[in-house]
Amino acid sequence: MNAIPPAALTAERLDRISPSQTIAISAKARAMKADGRDVISLSAGEPDFETPRNIKDAAIRAIENGETRYTDVSGTRKLREAVARKFKRDHGIDYKPEEIVVSTGGKQVIFNAMVATLDKGDEVIIPAPCWVSYPDIVSLADGTPVIVEAGPNQGFKITPEQLEAAITPKTKWLMLNNPCNPTGAAYTREELKALTDVLMRHPNVWVFTDDIYEKLVFGGFTFATVVEVEPGLKDRTVTMNGCSKAYAMTGWRLGFAGVPLPLAKAMDKLQSQSTSNTSSITQAAAVEALDGPQDTVEEMRRAFERRRDMVVRLLNECPGLHCNTPEGAFYVFPSVQGCLGKTTAGGRKLATDEDFVMALLEEGGVATVHGSAFLFPGYMRISYAEGDEVLREACARIKRFCADLK
């Protein structure tokens, strides 16, 4: 019996997306390490800290107490109440537990919202540089990504004029990441207000705000979220957050969002036919993360701020690189344009940012991600979610690599 050719087996929608390039580079770095290569990986968006002890203990208690059954699809009542308290405590936003959706990571919240709302031809405005998954999720949901570029001259943040110009009768969503992956750029309250003023003039445009890095802001920056700045947008805003970054819980897989009730019901319906509830043990741990002591969050934030300052300084000493100082997250996004057109010590011609990061990995032993993966060529993303000594060594390798270019 003849096998079905792969092209005939897979659905057309898969042709619209690519595998995550951040995951691909991390996998390549791991494979090189497994082969005995000396590689420092700064490609993954994952804190290097352990999950705090009180959160681990809460998970252990949940197991011992038999909290190992299915829960409501959108999360336990206890967790949804904890999330509602978090939004009220941090931002003064009132959500009912029924307006809270808990999913298996923030990515699933985005996926559910887009699949539940987009029809063919609907447009989603996405500022770039942007996280690699946003455009692909929109495309998979039959929507059309509308990319609006925000360069370093404007702090990697879109302007109200750009937003106004991008809105059409087909616009369904603005997708905002604040602070941003990959740039670390964060919108001030005033900058957000300028954007929300535009949105208030367009009642058919919804807002998806990905605030997953909100606790990681530096230099006295004060974070604000969309509905906090403009309460009039609450009925058409999804406010997404989670436990992965602030609480070092990436592998626990839990994201949550405050969602207008009709859309919350639609997302619950969709999730009921995909993953159903996220892990009951993770949910119990998340209650402790949100309601328990927050001192470890501040300890991690201070460590990331110190690392940011060190990495920006060291990268700006590298020939051909230029690095802005970001307001938040744990990434820097230096320009590599001063290195393009040159040749490495190993004889490789660097025509693109992808050429640069692949040569840096294979010849310099440092894994980063090229800016093109984030729809912004000529740059690279470096995660400084590593120990200080590791980061110093990585920056020294990058400096040697750049200095050896001809």
Outline the structure in words:
With 406 residues, the chain is an alpha/beta fold. It has helices at 6-9, 21-34, 53-64, 77-91, 106-117, 133-140, 160-166, 189-200, 226-229, 261-272, 280-291, 295-315, 353-364, 388-403; strands at residues 40-41, 100-103, 123-128, 144-149, 171-177, 206-210, 237-242, 255-258, 331-332, 366-367, 369-370, 380-383. The protein folds into two domains: 6-50 and 296-403, Aspartate Aminotransferase, domain 1; 72-291, Type I PLP-dependent aspartate aminotransferase-like (Major domain) (Aspartate Aminotransferase, domain 2, 3-Layer(aba) Sandwich), CATH 3.40.640.10. The chain is built from 14 helices and twelve strands. The strands form three sheets. The chain has a seven-stranded mixed β-sheet with strand order 2-8-7-6-5-3-4, sandwiched between helices. It has a three-stranded antiparallel β-sheet with strand order 9-12-11. The chain has a two-stranded parallel ribbon with strand order 1-10. Helix 5 (106-117) runs parallel beside helix 6 and helix 12 runs parallel beside helix 14 (388-403).
Short overview:
The chain is an alpha/beta fold. It folds into 2 domains: 6-50 and 296-403, Aspartate Aminotransferase, domain 1 (Alpha-Beta Complex); 72-291, Aspartate Aminotransferase, domain 2 (3-Layer(aba) Sandwich).
